[in-house]
Amino acid sequence: MAQILFLPVLHNPVQQTVKLYKRLRVKVSFSDQTRSANVTAPVVADSPAFDSMLHSLLINDPIVETSEVSQTSEVFGQNNLVLRRRTATKTLCPPPLPALKISIDKTGLYAISYADFLALGLDVSVLDAHQIQMSYIDQPVPVLIAGEQDGVFGPGDVLYFYAQAANGLYTRNNIYWLTLNPDGGTRINFKEGTPVPTHAQLTAFKQTVHVENNQVWWSRMPNSTKRDHLFWKELGAENSVEMPVTLHHLAQTAGNATVRVMLQGKTDNPVIDPDHHTKILLNGVEIHDAQWDGQAVFLQEVTFGQAKLLEGQNTVTLVSVGNTGATADILYVNWLEIDYTATMTAVQDQLTFEATGTGPYNLTVSGFSRPELLVLDVTDPLQIVPLLGATVSADGAGGFQVQYAEQLDGRKTYYTFTVAEEHLLKPAAITIDSIGWLQSPCHRADYVIIYHDSFDINALQNLVAARGVQVMAVPVSEIYDEFNHGLPDPQAIKDFLTYAYKNYTPPRPAYVVLVGDANADTLNELGHGINYVPTHTFHTREMGETASDNWFVSVSGDDPLPDMFLGRIAVRTQAELDAVVNKLIRYPQAPLDGWQRNVLFITDNNTRDFEVVSEQLIAQHLADYTSKRVYLGQYANNEVEAVTQDIIQAIDAGAVVTNYTGHGSLNLWAGEDIFNFKDVMSLNNPDKLTFVIALNCQNGWFSYYKPFRGTSDSLAETFLKADGKGAIGMFAPSGLGYTHEHEILANELFQRLFQDKETELGTLTTLAKIAAVTHYGISTENLEMFTLFGDPGLRLRLE
User: Is residue 464 part of a domain?
Assistant: First the structure.
């Protein structure tokens, strides 16, 4: 499918004139070459539901209508039609491969014993120990199996491996995999490390301490895609923040240390340059002064004599001076780093350090409480090498030291530690898993449910299946396992849906519902909610970063147009999910008793435009329906309480659709707060659930990261999750928008619903978004921001 976009503006650079054409006459010709006999690419059938929607959008619909699509095809021309011949093919669908998924949350040496496997119900003694293979992101990881010599992993045997904690946007737990390799697993190799008296001695190294304290979120950060939005503190003019940092084992040296503070400008004064002035204080003494400008990322860095540092706790203070003359001078402090020279002395019986040099050296690490020591070269974390021959002796301070020889060529990283219970780490979790079942073309699904593993999805799955569609329910963890090596990332969800769309047995999946809330604070560092099923974030021109589930189903081509019908049930608990499913079960059973002919319109009062939009929708589309109005501007003295009560009464009386036009924020309507999340709880409409359309801002910002007026739930989430009341679904944006674009979108919704009788929520909302963008040229941000909250396969009950 292609879009033709016309820009009716003629610019004459010589005359410096611009001419706007108000009318255009266009002729579009379709060449037979587009149906050439030379085309041989296989064509996969769209879902009948999605195919039907496409027909209503295309200007050359008859051509598509006479196309015949099948699973595998041979394309050739006949009678100017596109015919596709069905061919019988056999697809090999291998079973999924068994594997152990190992989750780790710390960096270090891990040990898994025979008893650990047995506790999982696995008797690994029946396996050939030589075939045990560890891997990480498809890369082999060497292991040491104590007791492997007899070929049996039996009682008393232990598997050792080195692993690194994750440092991504979506997880701090890393995932390693244990499988069987018939050719033999990868094993740890050792190297000689016996000290040589003639080698130069190395007893100190350059240490970098990084301190980050994420407390503040900034969504409107410019150029923010895939950037860190969490900061230590927001600073206004004439304010400061103290950042404590602990330094261990400072070397007595005349050398230098470095302090660096990462800053981000929030305000930008176009007249004053520079408009930020900051100073760094170390333990109360000024060590650096800098001036910089705008909404830039600024690294303030200073090098000074190491003697100014203190053993133990130091305090670095960042001061926003506030004397630039800018009316607003606001910045964010991100993180602090200090480089200094440290002695090779263990901290809590372990030390990871980077040695720098060229040539042979003896390296000595002291400060251990016991003599059982191990030295690992972890320069390549996927190919660690233990050193043999290291010597252990008293360190002269009541502890022990280890010395070993190494040939340095640049930089190498070592991990030295006491072989004690607390330093032999245990995985955070070990689960029996399988890999490959999702990546099989033998699957077929009309409706895909993607849910967080903590939810029991059976009731929803049975409800959807009762409609006669093929349902596939997939826990999000299995998507991560197969499409991102077990690591959480929304890209994995999109990759899965793309694979299913392009490879599953036709017809293609048409419906997708995401079950679980999302959190823009993806690691929950602020502590306000788990990121159950993450969303995609994108940068908007007015608001900065916000949520976009639409991105998941834009799987064909490089455009943002959705290729499947998508909804989200943004729940956090099983009780919330049960409440939504119970409403989905009850809704189609409600009798048609007149209220399904009611449509409720609610407007803000800031401008007459809001009322005009509603009145035009009523005039153009609702001649056969009863329109009820609650317009804030029609109430004397903005009687907010009366408006709220009238909204509640109108919804309780029954309205098949409730349409709000006006200003809004996360969980309320209008600056006067005429209706908010608390008011949803006052509704009493168990058998008259409404479908809410929000032509405003942010009512669908389901990934909001902290409480606002008492909850981090958007109004759309509250409407949907309200037990036995509220809405059967809601269509709302996650970001900011414009009334004239919302009007176009609403016209498409009302035309399709009330004129064309397209009652299925997924088809209705998707069709309206695509038509508004492709036919009328509204911003594609509306495609990304507007989300259907609810079941995309549900049909509204129009009388």
Answer: yes
Quickly tell me which residue has 């940092």 as its tokens. Answer: 245
Q: Determine how many CB atoms are found less than 10 A away from the CB of residue 232.
A: 22
Is the model's pTM score more than 0.85?
Answer: yes
Q: Residue 204 pLDDT more than 90?
A: yes
Q: What's the farthest any 2 CA atoms get from each other in the chain?
A: 99
Predicted confidence (pLDDT) at residue 88 exceeds the cutoff of 60:
no
Q: Which DSSP string do the residues of 592-642 spell out, in sequence order?
A: --SGGGEEEEEE-SS-HHHHHHHHHHHHHH-TTSEEEEEEGGGSGGG-HHH
Q: Is the dihedral of CA 273, 276, 277, 280 positive or negative?
A: negative
Of residues 720 and 434, the one with the higher pLDDT is 720
For residue 409, give every residue at least 6 positions away whose Cβ sits within 8 Å of its Cβ, in sequence order, or none.
358
The domain of 271 spans 204-343
**First vs last C-alpha separation in the chain:** 35
* Whether residue 319 sits in one domain with residue 187: no
313 and 211 within one domain: yes
> 69: pLDDT confidence band, cut at 50, 70 and 90?
very low
Number of Cβ within 10 Å of residue 149's Cβ equals: 10
Contact, 518 vs 674, CB < 8 A? Answer: no
Q: Is residue 747 part of a domain?
A: yes
State residue 79's pLDDT score: 28
Q: How many domains does the chain have?
A: 5
In a domain, 547, yes or no: yes
Do 220 and 305 lie in one domain? The reply is yes
